[in-house]
């Protein structure tokens, strides 16, 4: 069974550790156990309880009133907030996280589908989907969760992105629209951010050649020479090794220099010595904001 430290709870719920301690001491909200070295740890029931309480308190309810609710009543009240016409992101995010912890695929689908209907695919994923994955990845890295919850959410987001992309008009991009080649390098399989790029570009009338994961450099270059993209974009999460990112970008630029190269991810942002014509991006908001300016400002942004 997963166990959490109080710092884990703070990261996952957004509630400060000081506040958690007060709620625990004053209201007996959580029920930690102690290790042999007298360190408090918390279980999944504590995390779910905290997420639901944080949701209700975040919407103006007093903690002294919320703690009188049973765990079942508290969860029901928190989930009810997600059915409002314009719910805040916090309650929905907490509800999604609770559903993920329970491995409740039906509830995850329901909450996310409602958010997509109201916000659109991009806003729903940027404001809810990816923050949820970040929360779950914290638990996974700390060893307090298996990878099942993160896998479930990632697969759900992948399905939503594919469905949203399939719903776009086929061949709607003008012939003179910017051309993008999207790929993941050989050994890279984390496709979710690339799928978001694919949808965002197509929804804005860009021409896209989507080549997917695990593509050898020679195949990328061959496709680029045939497609002649305005820009190539890729996501670097596990490959190449941190010290070889600049060499990877340099080799690709040497073999195909006609288009700019957009590198997304932590490895890209932390890389040093990137060649001219390469733009590292840290978040998908930045990528989305870049799209309208690809013809006018991308080369200038890269040079700066």
Map the helices and strands.
Elements: H1 6-13, H2 17-27, E1 33-34, E2 40-41, H3 44-58, H4 63-66, H5 71-81, H6 89-101, H7 105-119, H8 121-142, H9 148-166, E3 179-183, H10 192-203, E4 207-210, H11 217-227, E5 231-235, H12 245-255, E6 260-264, H13 266-270, E7 278-281, H14 284-290, H15 298-303
Parallel strand pairs: 3-4, 3-5, 5-6, 6-7
Antiparallel strand pairs: 1-2
Helix pairs in contact: 1-8, 3-5, 3-6, 5-6, 6-7, 6-8, 7-8, 7-9, 8-9, 9-10
Domain B12-binding: 177-304
Domain HTH merR-type: 3-51
GO molecular function, one term: cobalamin binding
Features:
metal ion binding; transcription regulation; DNA-binding transcription factor activity; 2 domains; DNA-binding; two-stranded antiparallel ribbon; Methyltransferase, Methionine Synthase (B12-binding Domains), Chain A, domain 1; MerR_fam; Rossmann fold; disordered C terminus; 304 residues; alpha/beta; 56% helix
């Amino acid at each position: 069974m997963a166990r959490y430290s109080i710092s884990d709870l703070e990261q996952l719920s957004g509630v400060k550790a000081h506040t958690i301690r007060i709620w625990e001491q004053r209201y007996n909200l959580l029920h930690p156990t102690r290790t042999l070295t007298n360190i408090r740890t918390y279980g999944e029931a504590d995390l779910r309880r905290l997420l639901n309480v944080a949701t209700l308190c975040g919407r103006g309810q007093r903690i002294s009133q919320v703690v009188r609710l049973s765990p079942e009543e508290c969860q029901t009240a928190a989930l009810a907030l997600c059915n409002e016409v314009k719910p805040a992101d916090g309650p929905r995010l907490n509800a999604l996280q609770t559903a993920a912890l329970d491995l409740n695929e039906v509830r995850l689908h329901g909450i996310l589908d409602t958010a997509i209907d109201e916000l659109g695919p991009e806003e729903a994923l940027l404001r809810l989907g990816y923050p949820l994955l970040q929360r779950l990845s914290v638990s996974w890295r700390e060893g307090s969760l298996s990878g099942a919850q993160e896998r479930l959410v990632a697969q759900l987001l992948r399905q939503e992105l594919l469905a949203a992309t399939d719903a776009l008009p086929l061949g709607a991009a003008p012939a003179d629209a910017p051309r993008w080649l999207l790929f993941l390098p050989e050994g890279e399989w984390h496709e979710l951010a690339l799928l978001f790029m694919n949808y965002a570009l197509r929804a804005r009338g860009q021409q896209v050649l989507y080549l997917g994961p695990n593509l050898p450099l020679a195949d990328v270059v061959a496709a680029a020479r045939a497609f002649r993209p305005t820009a190539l974009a890729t996501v670097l999460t596990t490959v190449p090794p941190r010290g070889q990112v600049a060499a990877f970008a340099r080799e690709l630029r040497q073999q195909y220099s006609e288009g700019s190269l957009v590198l997304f991810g932590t490895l890209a942002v932390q890389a040093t010595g990137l060649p001219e014509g390469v733009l590292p991006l840290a978040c998908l908001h930045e990528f989305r904001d870049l799209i309208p300016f690809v013809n006018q400002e991308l080369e200038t942004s890269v040079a700066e």
